[in-house]
Amino acid sequence: MSVTYYGQSCVEFTFNGTKVLLDPFITYNPLAKYIDISSIEPDYIFLSHGHQDHVADMERIQKKSNATVVAIVETAEWVRKQGVESENVIEFNFGGTLTLPFGKVKMVYALHTNSTPDGNYGGFPCGYVFFIGDRRVYFAGDTGLTLEMKLLDDLDLDWAFLPIGGHYTMDMFDAVKAAGFINCKNIVGIHYDTFPPIAIDKKKAIALFQESELRLELPSIGETIIL
Fold first, then answer.
1. What is the model's pTM?
2. Cβ pair 213, 185 in contact under 8 A
3. Where is the Metallo-beta-lactamase domain (predicted)?
């Protein structure tokens, strides 16, 4: 099991040979200008919500890869309006669990807002928990700190992908609290540095997590790490 970081909240997991891309925002990210998105060919694309900085490259990547796009009901409707065939769209909702060839995926709560790039209502934002054999991975999406996270503390999470940039989501201090809520020691930071309001001091962030006996990974854009 591995993950490649493409900046902002865009990551691509490889689960038992299946490629699962989340929140594709690469072309319009100045920090990811050296990434060739034509080389990204996932089997699945998961969207946490419909904001532009999470869906901007969905259509282009989907059309080249013929990936299946997964999202909450209202965001999934926007996906279909972009020309993605219905058979390539899976919609579901909170409490739902998908059984897919690479494992199971449960949709969980995120504290944020959600609209699609055309300005329409996108349903609620969400996060996902991936169950891959005996491994558990939580992708929080865009979220503020919320007590709902405590519902995940008994899942024995191996890794959690948490926003740390602040301003629009949790900052690094709330992310440390979130790690406690979800009872997970291994964290990958997302949603930071892309725009001035969410720029962080990386050394400070790593030290802060270490003080709480947590591991914080901040991979470079394009870097792959083994989970």
1. 0.98
2. yes
3. 7-191
Both tokens of residue 141?
A: 């999406």
Strand 2-5 and strand 11-15: the pairing is antiparallel
Within 10 angstroms of residue 16's Cβ, the number of other Cβ atoms is 10
The domain in which residue 152 lies consists of: 2-226
**Residues with Cβ < 8 Å from 79, sequence gap 6 or more?**
47, 58, 69, 71, 89
**Through-space distance between the first and last CA atoms of the chain, rounded to whole angstroms:** 6
* Conformation bin of residue 103: beta by default, left when phi > 0, alpha when psi is -120 to 50: left
56-98 pLDDT per residue, tens? 999 999 999 999 999 999 999 999 999 999 999 999 999 999 9
CATH number for the domain that contains residue 58: 3.60.15.10
By C-alpha distance, which of 19, 21, 9, 13 is closest to 135? 13
Report how far residue 203's alpha carbon sits from residue 87's, in angstroms, rounded to the nearest whole number: 45
Tens of pLDDT along 215-224? 999 999 999 9
- The residues near 110 (Cβ < 8 Å, ≥ 6 apart) are 48, 49, 124, 125, 126, 127, 140, 141, 142, 143, 146
**What is the residue whose two structure tokens read 């959600």?**
114
Counting the structural domains of the chain, the total is 1
